[in-house]
């Protein structure tokens, strides 16, 4: 291997004894009796995928598609998605009606903008789906070796695999389908599997094939191989599999131990051979990949209500105009006198026929509904989608949320919820891997009743800061003052942050209980399932472990002089210091049995034989199961160890108890016979038999001590513990409370907690609630959960300990439905998926627990600390931008649409539009759309630095003050009075005045073009007034939008009159040469914008909103004045009684109360 340039080698082992219990022989269980019945009907002909029997089964192929559309379904499905939106459907109906004689404009002018908007959205959908398509192509075209007959294996694409194919998967390759493991590069058919893509776990799983197929280790062995498998039907359960394999006339049971799942990876094994059982969409991982729930932001839901309100307004105005039109038409021709002679009611069609006035009114209603459709912004949806995509790009490109160490930027996986980030009321967070690094460091230990380790945890440092004095730790020699920085500088070995001169550098040999210390660290070096890797160049050893804890223990033993460096099939080699000679020696321990850790046993043991022939059982486990297994003469250090373990727990450390015992040969012989008999059992109670045997040997232990490892908090996580007046309502996580947990007890504690909150007055104290999983199960019952929610929302912080994934999801659902506010869930593991999908916003941490949480999240970040910038900066900006953008959209459309209504009222509702057809159509598309998009992308009320400096600014989003009905209706009112000012000033200015040198007054074309020019100026200048942060792009789009209007009317007017109709040369010949046109435009624009300008100035000067205060603070140069900044903070929208704010206020009250005493 060295000749091939491979610099690392793995000391491979045959693990038939190492994993005695984990990979024991499969046995027939009760489930196997169901094979052949409902749900267990799958039949697989191994190595015969093309046989007639296999073809008749018609199983799906291995092609996997995750796209939303296909080439055939894209057009119909995409159109259906577009016209599900009420506004788009409305414009479709009006577009169809535009082909009738009822239309007040041409059909082309109505259809073209709709096609543009729908087409742009469909292109966006198509591009996003094409990206998914490219991912599918990459996965489906991966190669794997497939048996082609006569013992030959050739590379073949994944998508061509069939059920029954035999495949060869090599090291670090993904499994292309669900396989039954036949054999591996190990003699006992063991292989290591990484399931990170499935369940988020990074520890390796051990799988083992059947003994009958374990000898098939060469490709030629499969020449003529035939097997017959019957198993369960495709299902989503990742952890169960029931089947039988018939080989050479005998039947063998199949279990999850033989199943290799698609998208898991082969690790630490050169190759495996397997038979394809499930393909494509039948595989368990695809069965689990349900579509994520459809999430819509609160603003988007409210926007739908605004559109319904606008529909109501359109219908109401059309109805009002139709009634007036009907009455006027009926009275239009009496006694031979025609009031509206220009409509020729004496010879008109039904539209103006006085004899059929009711029918004419109905027709007018339909015409008016089409004409007033311009109240609804046709480009609203597509503009918002464009803005949200661009906002997502800015989030993805934010260098301040880029984690350089792992090369992971922030990633907005959906753009639908950008503004929701600015309205989060409640955050529900996982701890391990989310708040912490899930990277364990050995920091302290207790050996023979003596505490070792002078490392300082982050919890201890936080408590030291709270007490207002430096953290000083006493040693036997000198007082040593520690800081986080000095310790970080010393910690150069990953997983080891231990500092104690008493036992480092071999000094442990001088300790009183040196023999116990030797046994303690020897246990750490031997009792594990870690695999060593040796670098051939440097001879340095690294370890690959099933968990970070295991790796930390072995590294600690190595750093303290007990170096585990080699493992074979049945031995472990350790370099350690000999107490007698004082020299480092290599010792060999023969591994006889490994009793694996699981959540039920809560302990792990190995039985080894040392070089002197002694049989030793080495055990480590949780304190609640280890102390009860100690012998009477093995409890010498129990009291001191218990005290140390409690201290370590208070410091936020994870602890394990270490103990051992010696076995005599007869006792071990009996145990080995019984364990072999139990593992070979084919009865249904096989697991209980194994547990019974291990229970008898793991007893009468002698206590050595305890370990303490720290799962460090991620950078930027602030600890603020035990601030004055933070009260813990109930610590239901304590052992006594857990033992007594019952529904009645939990209900009583909740009621007591609510009483404490009520007694405190709701805001005088800050409370914290801690509840464990067992109590939480009762608290989530239907008759208790609402009371529990009331208690929880009244507390500053709530901690749910040892909660299951389902409980996490249920708590999230309870909070989301109970308070009606926006909830955000954040996690990093597969156990957080339910919580992320249940919350309004799911944030996935791309940490070390795999990508399952990230793949199920709405936004992915690399570290928890980036959540602050994501919410306070991007969340606030996106919320403000989208809110202002939507309000402005309705403002500009009401300004435009209401002038149509006023003009029609002025013309006695004759259904004549004030503007040219193409003026109507292009208003939302070209003349007013770009500035609002620029606002949605670039506007900032305050800078990122001030967003972070004044986090209470975020309350604007939580309280939804920028998109309240008051603010929405205020913008609508702005649109209505703007339309009134524009219409009446233009009409009055042009009605009686000579418009040109020839003395002619303005006609409909001149009046309409002048009003249109005023509207374009007003809505674009209104945007300029509304913007808080001007950029060059915003300047350009505002002035370009105005110039485009002049360019359009000039060019459009030069087209033939059959195309330009009433706009033919109207600008060149009538408007541009007329001074009154330019004067009226200036007068109307200033008059219309003046009320808003005055209102904004008064509000900013005398009644500023919170962002206005910060803008004043920055303008006056007082942003660094602590007293002034504190005054601004105190003028927040509402007092907050949760989280950091509550703790801060509690601390201030405590200080104020203590001042008189001093």
From TrEMBL:
Residues 44-109 form the P-type ATPase N-terminal domain. InterPro entries: ATPase_P-typ_cyto_dom_N, ATPase_P-typ_P_site, ATPase_P-typ_TM_dom_sf, ATPase_P-typ_transduc_dom_A_sf, HAD-like_sf, HAD_sf, P-type_ATPase_IV, P-type_ATPase_N. GO terms for cellular component: plasma membrane. One of its GO terms (molecular function) is ATPase-coupled intramembrane lipid transporter activity. It catalyses: ATP + H2O + phospholipidSide 1 = ADP + phosphate + phospholipidSide 2. Its EC number is 7.6.2.1. Keywords: ATP-binding, Magnesium, Membrane, Metal-binding, Nucleotide-binding, Translocase, Transmembrane, Transmembrane helix. Residues 854-1104 form the P-type ATPase C-terminal domain. One of its GO terms (biological process) is phospholipid translocation. The chain crosses the membrane at residues 86-104, 306-328, 361-382, 889-906, 918-938, 968-986, 1006-1029, 1036-1055, 1075-1095. Pfam families: Cation_ATPase, PhoLip_ATPase_C, PhoLip_ATPase_N. It is a multi-pass membrane protein. The active site is at 430 (4-aspartylphosphate intermediate). It is found in: Membrane. ATP binds at residues 430-432, 550, 597, 620, 654, 732-733, 802, 808, 831-832. Mg(2+) binds at residues 430, 432, 828, 832. Its cofactor is Mg(2+). PANTHER family: PHOSPHOLIPID-TRANSPORTING ATPASE (PTHR24092:SF175), PROBABLE PHOSPHOLIPID-TRANSPORTING ATPASE (PTHR24092). Belongs to the cation transport ATPase (P-type) (TC 3.A.3) family. Type IV subfamily. Involved in transport of phospholipids. This is Phospholipid-transporting ATPase. It comes from Thlaspi arvense.
């Amino acid at each position: 291997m060295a000749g091939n340039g491979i610099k690392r080698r793995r000391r491979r082992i045959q693990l038939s004894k190492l994993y005695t219990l984990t990979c024991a022989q499969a046995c027939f269980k009760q489930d196997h009796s169901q094979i052949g019945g409902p749900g267990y009907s799958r039949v697989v002909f191994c190595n015969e995928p093309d046989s007639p029997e296999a073809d008749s089964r018609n199983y799906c192929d291995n092609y996997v598609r995750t796209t939303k559309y296909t080439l055939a379904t894209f057009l119909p499905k995409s159109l259906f998605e577009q016209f599900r939106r009420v506004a788009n459907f409305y414009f479709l109906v009006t577009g169809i009606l535009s082909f009738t004689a009822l239309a007040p404009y041409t059909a082309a002018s109505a259809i073209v903008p709709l096609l543009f908007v729908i087409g742009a959205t469909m292109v966006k959908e198509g591009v996003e789906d094409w990206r998914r398509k490219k991912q599918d192509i990459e996965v489906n075209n991966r190669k794997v070796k497939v048996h082609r007959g006569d013992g030959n294996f050739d590379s073949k694409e994944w998508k061509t695999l069939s059920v029954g194919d035999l495949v060869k998967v090599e090291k670090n390759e993904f499994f292309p389908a669900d396989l039954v493991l036949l054999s591996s590069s190990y003699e006992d058919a063991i292989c290591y599997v990484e399931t990170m893509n499935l369940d988020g776990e990074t520890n390796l799983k051990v799988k083992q094939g059947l003994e009958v197929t374990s000898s098939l280790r060469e490709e030629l062995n499969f020449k003529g191989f035939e097997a017959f498998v019957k198993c369960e039907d495709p299902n989503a359960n990742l952890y169960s599999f029931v089947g039988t394999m018939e080989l050479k006339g005998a039947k063998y049971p199949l279990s999850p131990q033989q199943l290799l799942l698609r998208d898991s990876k082969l690790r630490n094994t050169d190759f495996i051979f397997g038979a394809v059982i499930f393909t494509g969409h039948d595989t368990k991982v695809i069965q689990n990949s349900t579509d994520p729930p459809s999430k819509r932001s609160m603003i988007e839901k409210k926007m739908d209500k605004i559109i319904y309100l606008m529909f109501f307004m359109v219908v109401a105005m059309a109805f009002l105009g139709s009634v007036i039109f009907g009455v006027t038409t009926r009275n239009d021709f009496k006694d031979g006198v025609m009031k509206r002679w220009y409509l020729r009611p004496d010879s008109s069609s039904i539209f103006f026929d006085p004899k059929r006035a009711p029918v004419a009114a109905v027709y007018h209603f339909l015409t008016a509904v089409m004409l007033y459709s311009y109240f609804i912004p046709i480009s609203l949806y597509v503009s918002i989608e464009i803005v949200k995509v661009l906002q997502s790009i800015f989030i993805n490109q934010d260098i301040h949320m880029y984690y350089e160490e792992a090369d992971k930027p922030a990633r907005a996986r959906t753009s639908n919820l950008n503004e929701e980030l600015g309205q989060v009321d409640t955050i529900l967070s996982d701890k391990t891997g989310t708040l912490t690094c899930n990277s364990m460091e050995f920091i302290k230990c207790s050996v023979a009743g003596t505490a070792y380790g002078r490392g300082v945890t982050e919890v201890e440092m936080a408590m030291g800061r709270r007490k207002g004095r430096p953290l000083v730790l006493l040693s036997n020699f000198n007082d040593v003052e520690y800081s986080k920085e000095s310790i970080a500088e010393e910690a150069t070995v990953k997983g080891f942050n231990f500092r104690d001169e008493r036992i480092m550098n071999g000094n442990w040999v001088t300790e009183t209980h040196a023999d116990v210390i030797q046994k303690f660290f020897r246990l750490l070096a031997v009792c594990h399932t870690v695999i060593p890797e040796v670098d051939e160049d440097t001879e340095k050893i690294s370890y690959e472990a099933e968990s970070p804890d295991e790796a930390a223990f072995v590294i600690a033993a190595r750093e303290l002089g007990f170096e585990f460096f080699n493992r074979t099939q049945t031995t472990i080699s350790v370099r350690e210091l000999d107490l007698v000679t004082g020299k480092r020696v290599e010792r060999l321990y023969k591994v006889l049995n490994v009793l694996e850790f699981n959540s039920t046993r809560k302990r792990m043991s190995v039985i080894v034989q040392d070089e002197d022939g002694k049989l030793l059982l080495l055990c480590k486990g949780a304190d609640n199961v280890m102390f009860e297994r100690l012998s009477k003469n093995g409890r010498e250090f129990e009291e001191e160890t218990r005290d140390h373990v409690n201290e370590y727990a208070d410091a936020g450390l994870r602890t394990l108890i270490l103990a051992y015992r010696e076995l005599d040969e007869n006792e071990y012989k009996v145990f080995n016979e019984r364990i072999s008999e139990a593992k070979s059992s084919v009865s249904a109670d096989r697991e209980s038999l194994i547990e019974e045997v291990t229970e008898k040997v793991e007893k009468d232990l002698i206590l050595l001590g305890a370990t303490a490892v720290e799962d460090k908090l991620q950078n930027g996580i602030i600890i603020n513990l035990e601030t004055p007046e933070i009260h813990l309502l109930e610590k239901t996580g304590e052992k006594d409370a857990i033992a007594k947990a019952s529904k009645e007890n939990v209900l009583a504690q909740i009621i007591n907690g609510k009483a404490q909150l009520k007694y405190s007055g709701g805001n005088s104290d800050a409370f914290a609630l801690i509840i464990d999983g067992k109590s939480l199960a009762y608290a989530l019952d239907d008759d208790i959960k609402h009371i529990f929610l009331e208690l929880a929302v009244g507390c500053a912080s709530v901690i749910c300990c040892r909660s299951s994934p389902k409980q996490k999801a249920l708590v999230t659902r309870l909070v989301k439905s109970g308070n009606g506010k926006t909830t955000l869930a954040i996690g990093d593991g597969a156990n957080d998926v339910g919580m992320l999908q249940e919350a309004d916003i799911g944030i996935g941490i791309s940490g070390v627990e795999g990508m399952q949480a990230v793949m199920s999240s709405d936004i992915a970040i690399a570290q928890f600390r980036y959540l602050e910038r994501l919410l306070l900066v991007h969340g606030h900006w996106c919320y403000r931008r989208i809110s202002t953008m939507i309000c402005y959209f309705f403002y500009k459309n009401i300004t435009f649409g209401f002038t149509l209504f006023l003009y029609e009222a002025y013309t006695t509702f004759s259904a004549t539009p004030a503007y040219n057809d193409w003026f109507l159509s292009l208003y939302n598309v070209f003349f007013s759309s770009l500035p609002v998009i620029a606002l949605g992308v670039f506007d900032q009320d305050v800078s990122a630095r001030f967003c972070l400096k004044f986090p209470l600014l975020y309350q604007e989003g939580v309280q939804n003050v920028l998109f309240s009905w008051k603010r929405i209706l205020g913008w609508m009112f702005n649109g209505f009075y703007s339309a009134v000012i524009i219409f009446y000033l233009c009409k009055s200015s042009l009605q009686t005045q000579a418009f040109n040198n020839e003395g002619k007054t303005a006609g409909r074309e001149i009046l309409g073009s002048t009003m249109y020019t005023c509207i374009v100026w007003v809505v674009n200048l209104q945007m300029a007034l509304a913007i808080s942060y001007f950029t060059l792009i915003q300047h350009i789009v505002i002035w370009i939008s105005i110039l485009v209007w002049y360019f359009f009317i000039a060019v459009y007017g030069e087209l033939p009159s059959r195309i330009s109709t009433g706009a033919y040369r109207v600008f060149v010949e009538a408007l541009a040469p007329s001074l009154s046109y330019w004067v009226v435009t200036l007068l109307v624009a200033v008059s219309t914008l003046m009320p808003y300008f005055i209102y904004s100035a008064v509000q900013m000067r005398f009644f500023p909103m919170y962002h206005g205060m910060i803008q004043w603070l920055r303008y006056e140069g007082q942003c660094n004045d602590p007293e002034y900044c504190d005054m601004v903070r105190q003028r927040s929208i509402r007092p907050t009684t949760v989280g950091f704010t509550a703790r801060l206020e509690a601390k201030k009250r405590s200080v104020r109360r203590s001042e008189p005493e001093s």
